[in-house]
Amino acid sequence: ILSCENMNTPLVIGHRGAMGHETENTLASVQKALDLGVDMIEIDVFKIRSGEIVVFHDANVERLTDGEGKIENYNYNELQKLTLDGNHKIPTLQEVINLMDKQAHLNIELKGNNTADRVNFIINYYVKEKGWPLDKFLISSFKWEELKRMRALNSQIGIAILTDEDPLQAIAIAQELDALAINPYYTTLTLENVDIIQKAGFKVYPYTINEKKDIKSMKQMGVDGIITNYPERIK
Ligand code: G3P
Ligand code: MG
């Protein structure tokens, strides 16, 4: 499902939903990405003190909400009182999955500590009880230890290795975890290293590409997907 037949048509992956259009990581942003017909949506998640997995990018709530402090220290009821941009709530992972209703793939980026267990539990629920194909989910993280925990919990789930350094350095861990993809920072890519990663058997889904000239150069390198704030610019 995640294969890319044509080098010039990479998967369109909406970043934090479609954050070029709506407040990042909100239900509105996820809905906007769906409306734009994305192949996949990327969201960031943390586990909060009361155990829920919530969709949020920063370790601290200050930049995006009217609250303060570390998101991991919040209980669900306290977090519900915060607003983003005045009129959005921080959604749970389940709220996002329910909204998506299998319309696109979901890339869950593990941001916080000790998220793998709970995220795996939630995914298993949607696979077993709601008929989501397991390959609709892709788990990524810069925290490779967390990805190791995810693989230990789930031998089948798609894993993407996030890196902002030389992407060739991620091949060994990708092999160790039988990963699907390496998700590099786009400026680290060249025709040569994209080719090496693909020949090693991994997809290349770089982040975050918004400008026309960069989209063009990613397509020329033959990447398999493009993570973008503006999904409508890719096709
Ligand atoms: O998953 C790609 C990208 O989202 C990684 O960086 O900081 O935007 O979560 P960040
Ligand atoms: Mg992210």
From TrEMBL:
Q: Which GO terms describe its molecular function?
A: phosphoric diester hydrolase activity
Which segment of the chain is annotated as a signal peptide? none
Q: Which residues form a coiled coil?
A: none
Residues in GP-PDE domain copies:
10-235
Q: Which Gene3D superfamilies match?
A: Phosphatidylinositol (PI) phosphodiesterase (3.20.20.190)
Q: Which GO terms describe its biological process?
A: lipid metabolic process
What protein name does the entry list? Glycerophosphoryl diester phosphodiesterase
